[in-house]
Specification:
Blueprint: H1 10-48, H2 58-75, E1 78-83, H3 125-138, E2 144-150, H4 157-164, H5 178-195, E3 201-204, H6 221-234, H7 249-253
Helix pairs in contact: 3-5, 5-6
């Protein structure tokens, strides 16, 4: 049995081959376009240094660490904590002894002056101001939220000497001077406010900041006296409008 083959006319055969050529050309054009796109992407990746590192790559870890540090930094609260200043308004830089540091007890002169204080003596005003200036310089550029002064603004050394020399004829004070205690507290607070006028300042009474050391007064008179000097610092009186004020004078007075 013989198979019969259909013989296509020359015109039909030519059209069929033409369609095949067009299909091949179309595929080649598509492939060329895809190759061109890939080449362009490679060029852009190289020029712009766009890459997608794996989770285990060093670059990815560094980027992740940097993002975490930014998040931590945003959550941090910057503030200054000043503790145990023990300011002595009568410190004498020319006295050589650590147990006689004040001008009312000077009997001999030291070989060299010590304007910033001596070991065993309380804090002179010049040391306080120098320290505050250093704090201001160190925190320059940081967004500080507040300053905390935790206790003992006045000098403590003469109180200790007082307890040791009761009944002695030493020139140290037998009865603490109310105005002198208040002066140390006020000078400390005001000097802090002068360096940091744009943020709240929270002072805390220390064990030497009372008329009788180590003993809290029962009367509210002393607390009200201290509050009259501290209130403007706590409520941030005079601070810029954009600063969040922690409380109001009316609320603060209820605590005294």
């Amino acid at each position: 049995m013989h198979e019969e083959f259909e013989v296509l006319p020359p015109e039909v055969s030519y059209n069929h081959q033409k369609k095949k050529r067009r299909a091949v050309i179309f595929l080649l054009v598509v492939l060329a376009i895809l190759c061109l796109i890939l080449v362009l992407l490679l060029i852009l990746t190289f020029v712009l240094r766009i890459h997608c590192p794996s989770n285990d790559s060093a670059d990815h870890k560094e980027q992740k660490k940097a993002r975490e540090e930014i998040k931590v930094e945003d959550a941090l609260v910057h503030f200054i904590h000043v503790s145990d200043i023990n300011l002595d308004m009568k410190y004498n830089s020319s006295i050589p002894k650590s147990d006689v540091c004040r001008s009312d007890g000077a009997i001999t002169r030291a070989e060299s002056d010590a304007p910033f204080g001596r070991i065993g003596c309380d804090t002179p005003v010049v040391l306080l101001n120098s320290s505050l200036e250093a704090m201001k310089n160190v925190t320059d550029g940081k967004k500080l939220e507040f300053v905390l002064i935790s206790g003992k603004s006045r000098n403590a050394l003469f109180v200790i000497i007082l307890l040791l020399y009761i009944g002695d004829s030493s020139p140290h004070e037998v009865v603490p001077d109310k105005q002198r205690i208040l002066q140390g507290i006020v000078v400390t607070a005001n000097n802090l406010h002068a360096r940091f006028p744009d943020i709240p300042i929270f002072p805390v009474l220390g064990l030497h900041d009372f008329l009788v050391p180590f003993i809290l007064p029962n009367s509210s008179d002393w607390y009200e006296t201290i509050l009259s000097h501290w209130a403007p610092l706590i409520v941030c009186d005079g601070c810029p409008i954009d600063v969040n004020k922690p409380t109001t004078m009316a609320i603060l007075r209820k605590t005294s």
